[in-house]
Amino acid sequence: MAEMNATVSWQDDVNFVGTSPSGHDVPMDAQKQKGASPMELILLGLGGCASYDVVTILQKGRQDVSDVRCELTANRADAVPAVYTDIHLHFVVTGKAVREKQVAKAVALSAEKYCSASRMLESGGVKITHDFEIIEAE
Q1: CA–CA separation, 49 vs 121, rounded Å?
Q2: Alpha carbon separation from 74 to 19, 39, 47, 96, 131 (Å, rounded)
Q3: Mean pLDDT, consecutive 10-residue segments, the chain of 138 residues?
Q4: Which residue from 70, 114, 115, 120 lies 20 to 30 Å from 2 (Cα-Cα)?
Q5: β-strands 64-76, 25-29: how paired?
């Protein structure tokens, strides 16, 4: 098991700066004025993790991909704590002659095997769904 260490430091009001294990600073603001909220960062982390998987799997499959965008739609509980109840990831893959079968495989492998963020959220009861579309590049 690999240990990771991060730090979150209070700045003022409800503003914090998180320092990642790799040394990058990330502003956080519960009021969303000076940075993303912590819950928004969880959503972005899921999208980043899944997107990384999809891109690398498509590259290994020799697909001519020029862009991948992950659009996330999420719902949170009305009660405190306002946890995510369901999250949908919609991948928009742009490239030349990208095969639908390869994209479907990449999305499935990310969801079922590789994306740690997805697996962690699902084990906590979040319903996560996925779909995709392919745009032919000019």
Answers
A1: 12
A2: 26, 11, 11, 30, 14
A3: 95 96 96 95 98 98 98 97 97 98 98 96 97 96
A4: 70
A5: unpaired
